[in-house]
Amino acid sequence: MAEIFDKIMTEIEKFLSQPGTKVNTYMEMIEKSTGIKRMYIAKGVLVFLMIYMIFGYFAQLICNFVGFLYPAYVSIKALESRNKDDDTRWLTYWVVFAFFSVIEFFSDFIFSWFPFYWLAKVVFLVWCYLPLERNGSDYVYTKFIRPFFLQNNSGIDNIAKRLVKEAKDAISSKNE
Q: What residue ranges do the domains of the chain occupy?
């Protein structure tokens, strides 16, 4: 776990120090005016956001932005690239995201009473899309979703076919 944390901190430091970017320009300006190193500033902002996710308003909205905006952006980039590995990675993320959303729909009433829920959800979603070889979406998909799907594939197909047929029948009877 410490290895993953160190890797993430190294990537954050690279991101904050990329020459020619607005982030680097702003971080340089803040660093010069406060005398505080940019990594300490970034860690402070991260701690503030974590505390806000526990006690602040709009934690659910922020959580949904974290789980949706960046993944949607890089998914579009993946679709536009010629590489199919990134398509698979982000498709796996969206399958896990949808699976988690369905579970959350039925258990949201229970989970929302826990003060660390939105923080835990943000951490989970970020873990699911971290650029690691075996990130959270790979783990959840291979351990839970894939085995369930393979075991119940024919039953799921039959239900889907029946629902499509009933929908077509309902539409055709309405048009008559």
A: 1-55, 57-176
